[in-house]
Every structure is written in structure tokens, then in C-alpha cells.
Amino acid sequence: MTEEAIEKENIAITKAYKELLKVSYRTLSTEDKKLIRSAFDVAIDAHKDQRRKSGEAYIFHPLAVAKIVAQEIGLDATSIAAALLHDVVEDSEDYSISDIEGMFGETVAKIVNGLTKISSLKKDMDVSMQAENFRKMLLTLNDDVRVIIIKIADRLHNMQTMDSMRDDKQVKIASETLYIYAPLAHRIGLYNIKTELEDLGLKYTEPEVYNDILNKIKESKEEQDKYIKEFSAVLKNSLDKELMDYTIKGRPKSIFSIRRKMQVQGVSFDEVYDKFAVRIIYKSDEDNEKFLAWKIYSIVTDHFRPNPIRLRDWISSPKSTGYEALHITVMGPKGRWVEVQIRSERMNEIAEKGYAAHYKYKQNSEKEDSLETWINRLQEALENPDTNAVDFVEQFKLNLYSKEIFVFTPTGELKSLPKGATALDFAFSIHTEVGMKTRGAKVNGKLMPLSHELQSGDQVDILTSESAKPNANWLDYATTARARSKIKSALKEDKKRIGEEGKEILRRKLKQLKITLNEASVNELVNYFKLKTSLDLFYRVGLGTIDNTMLKEYSSSRSNALMSFIKNKITRKQTVKKEDLEKDEVTAKYDSLVFGKEEEKLDYKLSNCCNPIPGDDVFGFLTVNEGIKVHKKNCPNALSLQSNYAYRIMQAKWIDSSQQEFLVKIVLTGIDHIGLVNDITNIVSENMHVDMKSISFESNDGLFSGKINVVVKNNTIIKKLLEKLKKINGIDKVTRV
């Protein structure tokens, strides 16, 4: 570079630095300015030899990120300094985290360390690692939420300056942004940044669609401005009469949300009716905010007819992001629906700055902050080591982006849950112990199944019982990450407990067959029954899936091991098939795929990109021409499919025969006597792996007939139950229908 070019660049850097101090949302003290200046000097030194792909000096990037943090998000001087330093440790060998701590203190060092950890995850990784890395990144939320906020600002600037990158890199970064960073920004309350991230994401993932909508918005802008002016003029006189201090703005809907509306409603651009919203922002002290919001609502609805089902009162019940506003949709001039958003200046700041403004206004109030509550709740799900990372990110993403419903506890306390949450989710949101002991739920006074989907305004009373415990079906009823992770942990514990009982049973049974239970015999049994782990073996013995007959077969095959080995070598294929037929009940493990919550059997093809095999964690993807294609959850294409075509994704799983539950109808006849029904129900309920669904008895002239519907895991259990029922005094016949 020539001296003249270097001089020009230095002037631009100085200008960008001064701009940063000028636009800060917070008032910066002399101390603050000193801190930011020191951070700027260190960043200049660390990045002096670096340039970006576009050719400009690298320092422009940390400056731009710091400016987003200061102006758009409104964080404090500590965060601005951390934003300037966010790449220093990673990109320069001259500075370590301990150097940063010595120069700037513990807080800045902690934030920079969090950001360095995230960056180091991203180097040369394949997409299948993405979920695990997102999970690690989200763990930094607990260190300091500012880590994630600066990371979002970093991502926004990268998205704004991505033109010089390779096409495939652009698509990868844009998909990742749509998949996790935009929902995160939404959840933290950074709505403006979320909108920009979504639009930029669309620009690189679907450029034709993006440019088409952008051009159409430009074409219709003049007409829209005219319409908003006309709409505002009608309200202006009435608002002025009330001596209100306000501004009315038109806000175009984002390109991404217009695209989503076109997809969901199956309409063209011209048919999307609410391409813009009108925002009324009024000045008020905190005491009169609510009163004035409803006063403005009253004025708007005096002039324009409201759509009653489109009223959203986020003032009485703010969103868990802290967002407050009153949204109404009214029939404007020329018969067009218009969304009107009513906010005070304080509410508007919180909507635009999210976390930072929330804290600015929170200083005097003692109310627990919803963001903190959310982070604490999220932490439980994050720290569960058993959760599959892709599952976790999917669940987490649902909870990030989902709309909210508000439901009441029996005492009238208001709880916020994601839309689609069930009575079981509500139970776990109260407390883990309540969730674990849930027996049923009353919604608005009526007894409802645990799978009942809750609506805003419902009052829910959870019924608990000491004997209640989670079962595998609960995973179909629960939608929130918190509930699902707790249920999975409980089921694992249950499996371990049954496994421990099974181990003792197996020890006794093998002793009778003169075999010692040790590591060698356990490994032999695991291989013989084609299982994966010793726990699978003990669990099946505990359930009764592996019974005496099967163990005797194992014993005889063991004593004839040499012959079996030779036979196996000669006719290996035939033997495998024969064994499969003989042990159908055990080896039917993972033999067929089912789709959706209803677990339907549908036609499918296995995808070539990841070649799933029975037992893998999988999902179905509805293709345009080839029907359902099955992919592994950690398939390299999984994240892009999930992020771009979520509406085509189907739940899928391989069925494990020992886990599947079957409904069995039992018919009993015999001589009636007092206490007979009690004897029957005692035997059914004492059988720990049998769940009674319905029961009916009739008595006629001293004879009785009865029907019982039970749910069992396998044939062995039902056989044992029938044998026990036959032994009851007075029972003549017991048959399975």
C-alpha cells in the first residue's frame, strides 16, 4: 500500500472510533472513555498486520461490532471494550486472557474468554459438529449473557460484509444465522437485529426470492407512504385534542416475514395484505403508561373497526423477552387491514434494545427479570449430559422462536409457556418434582389428558400422586426442552433400576444352569441376543423379555460351542436367519421405521448422503419427487434441511420391540363371589409392567363376565398375567381376545 493510502485508512479508522463514542446509547463517563481507548489501542496493535477478505484493515470489524453493541443494542462501556477485543486473543500471539485480565479487569476478560471459546469451536468443523458447538456456545449464556449478545453483533457485521466470500461459505453462514442466531436475537429481545439477520440470511440462501421481494417493496413504497399518511391524518386530530405527545411511524414488514407469509398462506406478494404496520409511540411517565395506551386504543377503534381476534395485550402480560405493547388490527381506508402497535417511549426502547434497555429501567424495580429466569431454566437443559446435541438444539430452537401463551395456576399466578405446550409441560414448569409425580390435570375445572394442548387464559391444576412416575409415552405429550430432558433422565433411571433387578434374576437363573455371571458370560449373552450393552441385557431380563427357555437355549448352545463355531463358519448366513426366526421377540429390535407422533408405517427411502442403519437417530424429509427420504440426525445435510425446510421434516424412529407397548383385551368368566373384582385388580396392579386402561364387570344369576384392557410391553408379560388370573378362586376361563 502507498503512504497516501495508509494515511487515508488511518483517518477512516480514527473517524470510525470517534463515531463509536458519539453514538453510544449510554452516557459514557471519563473512566468509560479511557477503558474504550485502551481497548481500541490493544485491538489496533493485535490486528495491525491483518486484513479482511475484502482487503480493508481488520480493525474495521471490531470497531463495527463495538458500534452495533453501543448504538443498536445499547450495552455499557465494559461490553464496548470487550467487543473491540473480541478477536484479539484468538488472532494475536502477543496477548493472552491473563494479559487482558491484567489490563482490563476480570469482567472484560471473562467476556473475551467466552467469545474466544466460541470462535475456536468454529474452525474447520463439519456441519455435523454444529449442534454440539451451538450447545457449547449456549453454555456461555450462564457465564455472562453479554457474551452471546456481542456474538450476535459479530454475526450481524459478518452478514453485512459477506459479499467477498465464496458462495458456498455464504450459504453455510447464512443457514447457520437463520437456524440459531436470528432466533437467539429474538429471544433476547433484539427485534431490529433479528429482522436484519433474517433478511440477510434470506439474501444469501434464496437470492432470487430476496431480490424479487425487495424490488416489489421499492415499487410499492410510494403508494404505502401515501396510505400511511392518509391513515395517520384521520387519527391526528383526535390525538391532538387529547393533548397527547406522540409520533406516528409506518414500519414496513421485513422481507423475511413477507416471504414466510407468502409460503404459509400460499399467496403472491400482492395478496399479502399487511405488508406494513403503523406504530404510535407516546410520551408518558410509568404510572400512566397503561391508561394512555388504552386511551389511544379507544381513539383508534373510534375511527377504524378492529378485528377482535387480532388484539394482543402485551402490556398487562409482557412477553418473556420483556416486550410490552398493545397490538390491534383494524380495517383502514380502502378496506385494507392495518396492524397498529401502541407503545410508550420506554416500551419502544425495550423493543429495540431488548436486554440493555430492560436493565436501564429495571434498576429501581425488584421484579425478577424474565431473561434471567429463562437463562436459569435453559441452564438445566443445557447441562444434562444425556441429551443428544441435535435433539437439544432442535428443542432449544423451538423454545426460542415459539410464540407464547399465558396460563394461570389455581392461585391465579400467571405462567408463560411456548405455544403448543401441554398440561404435562405446565406441570414441569412449576417444579421438576411436580412434573415427575403428575397423575392428571384439570384445565378450567375439567379433567383433561396430559397431552391436552393449553390455550392462553386456561387455568390449570395439576393432580399429583406419590406412586405416579414418567413413562415412555410422556415424551409424546411433552414439547418443552425442560420437560423432555427431565422425562428422558427419569426413564434412564427407571431402566437402570429394572436392569439392577434383572441382573439379580439373571444371576439366579444362570446359577441353576451352572453358569457363573461374570464379564465373559455377560459379553457372550449380549452377543447371543444381539444387544448393544449389558444394561440392555439386564433390562430385558428384568422385563421378562428374555425368559428361562431362551436362557436354556443359550446354555445348550454354549456347551456345544465348538460345534456351533464350525457350523457357523460353514453356513453363516443360514444360521443368522434361523436364529432371527427363533428369537424374533428380542432381535426384532430396531426392525422397522415409524413416522410422526402417531407412529405410522409409511413408504420411505434411505438417503445416500448419510446411509442410516437401523438404530440410528433419524428424521424423515418430505422430498418433492421421491417421497419420504430418511436422514440421520447428524447427517451433514441435517442442519440445512432443518433450517430451510422445517415444514417438510417428519419425526421418525426405529422401533425397539421390547420398548413397544401393546393394548391387550382379556375376557374372564366364572362364579361370582364377594371380593372377586378386588382379587383381579390386585393381581393386575401388582404386576409392575402392566398398565390397566379400562375394566368392566357384569354379574348375572351368580355368574360373572368381565373385560380388562391392559397395556403390556411383550408377550411374556401377558402370559404370566393370564397364568396368575387363572389361579384366582372362582375364575373359570381367562382368554386373550
TrEMBL record:
What are its GO biological-process terms? guanosine tetraphosphate metabolic process
SMART domains named in the record: HDc, RelA_SpoT
InterPro entries with a match to the protein in the record: ACT-like_dom_sf, ACT_dom, Beta-grasp_dom_sf, HD/PDEase_dom, NT_sf, RelA/Spo_fam, RelA/SpoT_AH_RIS, RelA_SpoT
Q: Which residues form the signal peptide?
A: none
| Entry GO CC | plasma membrane
Cross-referenced CDD domains: HDc, NT_Rel-Spo_like, TGS_RSH
What domain of life is recorded for the organism?
Bacteria
Q: Sorted alphabetically, which SUPFAM superfamilies does this protein's record hold? A: ACT-like, HD-domain/PDEase-like, Nucleotidyltransferase, TGS-like
Q: What are the TGS domain coordinates in residue numbering? A: 403-464
Gene3D superfamilies in the cross-refs = 3.10.20.30, 3.30.70.260, Beta Polymerase, domain 2, Hypothetical protein af1432
By sequence similarity, the record places it as follows:
Belongs to the relA/spoT family.
Function as written in the Swiss-Prot or TrEMBL entry:
In eubacteria ppGpp (guanosine 3'-diphosphate 5'-diphosphate) is a mediator of the stringent response that coordinates a variety of cellular activities in response to changes in nutritional abundance.
List the protein's name.
RelA/SpoT family protein
